[in-house]
Specification:
about 20% helix; alpha+beta; elongated; 7-stranded antiparallel beta sheet; 3-stranded antiparallel beta sheet; about 30% strand; about 210 residues; 2 helices
């Protein structure tokens, strides 16, 4: 009887310890999502038809509309889920107002005609910090055509993010960085109508 009581007590203690760990992991998940600002919607500045878009730009690319498939391969464990979330682009890289959305838009230089915009544009002041939106490794840091000074970061699970028109780059190729790390400073290099950040998210090469 005593052996059975001791066994039962040890089993209960083990389950309580596991529950406590799970509760902490859930709390870590909630805190991480809060830090990334997942529930925060950026301010939107509406463009006026026929007028140029202030603080916008980026290369003109042909972008096909495709739905990003949902990956259900993540472990049900909270710890594995947290690790996976840390490598998925979440939140905004800059707190500025959104001047141009993804997809079809008026030409930002003339306000006339249309073009496909491959990311999101955030208005800001030159020199403001730009933050990576997930853990990852710097794949490119330099000058690239209409992007101007640009940083590309790979994150795993097929995700990649792009930070363009920077006035300064603060990371190097091959460098491992964590979500929130400063990749550079906001600017207006490349094809740009004014100081802003051009931000892209890709999965398996699809924007």
């Amino acid at each position: 009887v005593i052996d059975l009581q001791n066994f039962t007590s040890a089993e209960i203690d083990t389950k309580l310890a596991a529950l406590k760990k799970s509760e902490q992991l859930v709390l870590d998940l909630q805190n991480y999502l809060k830090e990334r600002g997942v529930a925060v919607k950026p301010v939107k500045i509406e463009s006026q038809p026929g007028k140029p878009i202030d603080s916008a730009g980026g290369p003109v690319l042909s972008v096909s509309a495709q739905n990003m498939p949902f990956s259900s391969s993540f472990s049900e464990g909270a710890e594995t889920l947290l690790q996976a979330l840390q490598r998925m682009p979440l939140g905004a890289p800059h707190k500025g107002a959104l001047t141009s959305r993804f997809g079809n838009r008026p030409n930002p230089f003339t306000g006339r005609g249309a073009e496909d915009h491959s990311g999101l544009d955030f208005r800001g002041n030159t020199g403001e910090t730009i933050h990576v939106t997930a853990n990852g490794k710097v794949a490119f840091a330099g000058v690239q055509g209409g992007y101007g000074h640009v940083v590309r970061v790979t994150h795993g699970h097929g995700f990649e993010t792009v930070y363009a028109h920077l006035s300064r780059i603060d990371v190097k190729v091959g460098q491992s960085i964590q979500a929130g790390h400063v990749v550079g400073l906001l600017g207006s290099t490349g094809r740009s109508t004014g100081p802003h950040l051009h931000y892209e998210v890709m999965r398996n090469g699809v924007r």
